[in-house]
Amino acid sequence: MKQINDLSGTWRLSGTDVDLAATVPGCVHTDLLAVGRIPDPFLDDNELKVAWVGRQDWTYQRDIGWDGPVPDRIDLVFEGLDTVARIEIDGAVVGETRNMHRAYRFDVTSRITAESSVAVHFTSAYTEAEQWRDRLGDRPNAYPEPFPFIRKMAASFGWDWGPTLVTAGIWRPVRLEGWSTARIAAVRPLATYAGSSGKLDLAVDIERTRDRALQAKVLVNDREIAVLDLAAGETGIRREIDVPGVTPWNPIGYGEPALHMVTVILTDGDDAELDRYQQLTGFRTVHIDRSADDAGTRFVIHVNGQPVLVKGVNWIPDDIFPSRMTRQRYELRLRQAADAGVNLIRVWGGGIYEDRAFYELCDELGLMVWQDFLFACACYPEEEPIRSEVHAEARDNITRLSPHPSLITWNGNNENLWLHEAMGWNDHPGGDLSWGSGYYLTDLPTIVAELDPTRPYQAGSPWSGSPDLDPNSPDHQTMHSWEVWNREDYLHYRDTTPRFVAEFGWQAPPAWRTLRDAVTDEPMRPGSPGVLHHQKAEDGNGKLARGLAPHFPEPASTEAWHYLTQLNQVRAVRTGIDHWRSHWPHTAGTIVWQLNDLWPVTSWAAIDGAGRLKPLYFALRALYADRRLTIEPRDGGLAVAILNDHAAPWTGDLMVEHRDTGGAVLATTVIPVSAAARSVTLTAIDHSDAALVVATLGDVRALHHTGDTAVPDGGLTVTAEIVPGGLDVHLHATGLARDILLQPDRIHPDAVVDQGFVTLLPGESTTLHVRAPAELDPHSIKEPWVVTDLAAALSGR
């Protein structure tokens, strides 16, 4: 059996005028932060004060040794090095790397002794990227940074929601691994499901030190299903194996996400175990319907033959320093997504191939994963040495991630095919050079077809399916909707019915405490220096202001600005999702930009950089519910869209009320309705001059304000009682109390609440549950802006 010597833990970090204890896995920034050598880069403009870290070279060093019997081979294994590194043992070079997104294995058998030392010398990512940019020629890029010239997390170099903090370090685990005769180098268990049976397309790669006959026993759930013989010298084997009697894996809402343990045991001729591979996987079949119809080209994801309405979110790395991510933090964030009704996570192409824990948790939760290859918003050179790195990276990660049933599609890039045309990059300096199209249209689909033919591949997001079509056409396959937000009001979401919306979103600041903790400006204003430093989008605050202008008067204070921009974010995303969802299956899904943030910033996220839930999060929970009502403009009038993404029909009496500005009922209509499973039913309703239309079916309600109306005082009463773990906050309205928001972080930094914006009709009451790890003062709810409704916000109260 293999012998493992874990090398994680304490190392020594050195650089110019730096020599300190370091933690592996980790990175230079986190090590410097731990001993106070740099200020918190999330505070004020400290990001600029630590920029020097990314420009320096660094060395990690520690003693290593091998005690006891010496096996045939001793390998030094790095699961992740960030990024350009030279590895030495006792001063002798044993390997070099230039890719953050790959694992590396170096044979150190002849180098290592009982008292050896290993050093990992990191060259600044800027030095490497700028060197290859100068050699290969600069080319167009949406951001003024050289990230396309190095295979490193692009977001390290800054984005329109992220800081520029260019890292270096041993960011994933490292170990010594000793083995003899042979080891399992890779396993690709491609598991599919058809009819009532599973199939395992199993590839096993072997590395040897001795030529002898071997066997690989294959088990599913401890039941032996095959024995594979490998002749002397044979280094790989592939078999298709029928696996009857397994339960299929299904996404959330479509059945159980059943998982099965696949085990491969490698033995020698004497039946002695040499190596073992174990991995949970799931049997399911994925297909994307991209057929033509009268309206263009579909994009409907099918799992196990079932069309699935995608209710998705885009995922960026959850920390600008990914080495800080833990399984617990992944679980928290992914459970938050699932609890919000999300069924698909898109891993965006400017980040990383996430940790194994991310995909395992998605497997367990039934969350589908759309995985981008790591290219975003730029022209990428196809010359060496970058081309070989791209190929090796793709092979490495397809093999690593292929066991996970949650992974349902590979995507070639983020926006590169679109921006190349939309931005006219051909006419920019360097536009006549290679720009990545060969990766997306030829290389990557070829590698996916070889290593993972069970999953559909798409050349990019957005992508219309052909170089002859506008890559971002609403009529063909996937679209990114960014004219709204960048240039248009959110009501313009209703102008198009795309086939699939893979990105769209609207900004808002983070929770008040998150912003206040990150910015020391006094007074803090929307345009004060610290607030603007934590707004990375081009003219972001200008777009926020222009987005408010059609709907609200200019905010009277920073607090009112914060409240109204949060409300506008909710209204914008709600307008888009409700409109597009009402066109299912023509529009087959939405993926909101974005679920999460990686530092405290004004952005499109639903969960801010401190992990606090913005009101958008709670809105998503309602928007992505299996059963939802929305009142939509249709054919010059109004229609109630009954959105039933449930396996059972939805029937009952639809009550439609017309109400005045104060919420008083003017007229009521009751309409028997029935929506089939997984369907949308539209019911036209009378169009009147009522200020408010309310539609109710069972315990689901939709509100539609028919125009710009006055917002009278809703007669809101707020009381609180102490309960175990926090407060129950009771709301009662004598009139129409619109968009009531309780901000728990204004009570206690760690307090949470179970709802976002709430509207109460006259005479209605509800209870908000506030919980915290400390005793809360019930009088705190009377503090300014802790509980606010729209009337109060507009009056500056």
UniProtKB/TrEMBL annotation:
It catalyses: Hydrolysis of terminal, non-reducing beta-D-mannose residues in beta-D-mannosides. Residues 11-172 form the Beta-mannosidase-like galactose-binding domain. It comes from the Bacteria. The keyword Amino-acid biosynthesis does not apply. GO terms for biological process: carbohydrate metabolic process; glycoprotein catabolic process. It is an enzyme of class 3 (hydrolase). Its EC number is 3.2.1.25. GO terms for molecular function: beta-mannosidase activity. Pfam families: Glyco_hydro_2_N2. Keywords: Glycosidase, Hydrolase. This is beta-mannosidase.
